[in-house]
Design a protein that fits this description.
357 residues, single chain, 11 helices, 14 strands, six-stranded parallel sheet, Rossmann fold, Dihydrodipicolinate Reductase, domain 2, alpha/beta, 2 domains, eight-stranded mixed sheet, globular
């Protein structure tokens, strides 16, 4: 289906099958292939990578019809693109997809700077084509349940919030040794990643804070400190641990953001603690994705509350393309840009802290 046909068909809900292409054929590209291939209404028709061998491998492993020989061929083959490139290439890839008039599913973060992401938003806005930024922690049923819990006022007035995301892969090679595996090495490079742990982990925390506490005003940062990855050969030098303190939401709730790749014993632990005048709500998105822990201040009891299932960001993107209204609505380009503004501010505060130490 030609791109202009998809655009008109998408607006009137006439699309039945989406020809989806995967741009970036590493481990995350394979994961995208598995997620999207399981959804009705999607046909994986093409994939593209600057290394042709990777594209051929992904095509074979992901049941993709054929690997494209050039970017131009790839963009012509597809109605929509899912992008699994490294951080450095996100914004430029998004602009190419916008110029081709295609819909886009983009891995977080949206770019490396707010200037980049503002340009992406400006280019996509006129097309009206679906654009989802994959803040994948939104897929945990605990997050929308917690949002509804807060909206019902069951927590009372929120007095503090802590958002933490801890991994251990720089000290425990459970996912492979970062010194020898490229899929981890680039994440430690400040020029290839979005400032290391900021784009990788803090982006999820910032998105969750906006989702739960409200997007306006933008979170403020009072202080930040961190340390960088060790430099080994051509790798290292980006932030691998950070602690950021500030305020978020219309009530200016005091918040703490903590992220590390050196937290021994924490494989992939994202936790959120919301303290209110009526109790405390805790989320553990590694071990309890579909339940939250509620501690009531009045009854002095605690209980795990089950959370109903929710549609994923992948399902939400396909729903948008098929003319359906997803619930919840997945994060879009403006969400990605707002998170990037926060990451820029955090990076600047970290540099100031580093310069004064």
């Amino acid at each position: 289906m030609a791109q202009h046909q998809l655009r008109s068909s998408w607006h009137n809900g006439a699309v039945s099958v989406i020809r989806l292409g995967i741009w970036g054929c590493g481990a995350m590209g394979l994961y995208h292939a598995k997620r999207f291939s399981s959804l009705p209404g999607v046909s994986l028709v093409s994939c593209f990578d600057r290394e042709p061998a990777k594209a051929r491998e992904l095509a074979a492993a992901g049941a993709i019809q054929h690997p494209a020989r050039s970017l131009e061929e790839f963009l012509t083959d597809c109605d929509a693109v899912t992008c699994a490139l490294i951080d450095r290439d996100h914004a430029s890839a998004a602009q190419r997809v916008a110029q081709a008039g295609l819909a886009l599913f983009m891995e977080k973060p949206l770019g490396r700077t707010a200037a980049e992401t503002a340009e992406v938003v400006a280019q996509f806005r006129p097309s009206g084509m679906p654009f989802v930024v994959n803040f994948s922690k939104r897929n945990a049923p605990a997050l929308p349940f917690a949002k509804a819990f807060l909206a019902q006022g069951r927590l009372g007035q929120i007095v503090s919030a802590r958002f933490s995301y801890l991994q251990s892969w720089m000290v425990d090679p459970v996912w492979g040794d970062w010194r020898s595996e490229s899929r981890w090495q680039w994440r430690t490079s400040d020029s290839l990643s979005c400032h290391g742990v900021l784009g990788d982990l803090v982006s999820h925390l910032a998105d969750a804070a906006r989702f739960l506490l409200g997007p306006d005003p933008a979170p403020s940062i009072a202080s930040a400190k961190g340390r960088r990855s060790p430099v080994e050969g051509n790798w290292g030098g980006a932030w691998d641990e950070v602690l950021v303190e500030g305020h978020a939401g219309p009530r200016l709730v005091p918040v703490v953001f903590e992220a590390s790749r050196r937290a021994q014993g924490s494989l992939d632990a994202m936790t959120i603690t919301l303290e209110g005048t009526d109790g405390t709500l805790s989320l553990d998105l590694e071990n309890h994705r579909a339940e939250v822990l509620w501690r009531s201040r009045f009854s002095q009891t605690e209980e795990w509350l089950p959370c109903p299932t929710t549609s994923s960001t992948y399902e939400g993107f396909v729903d948008l393309l098929l003319g359906k209204q997803p619930a919840p609505v997945p994060p879009g380009a403006t969400d990605g840009h707002a998170v990037q503004e926060f990451l820029d501010l955090a990076h600047q505060k970290l540099l100031e802290s580093e310069g004064s130490s």
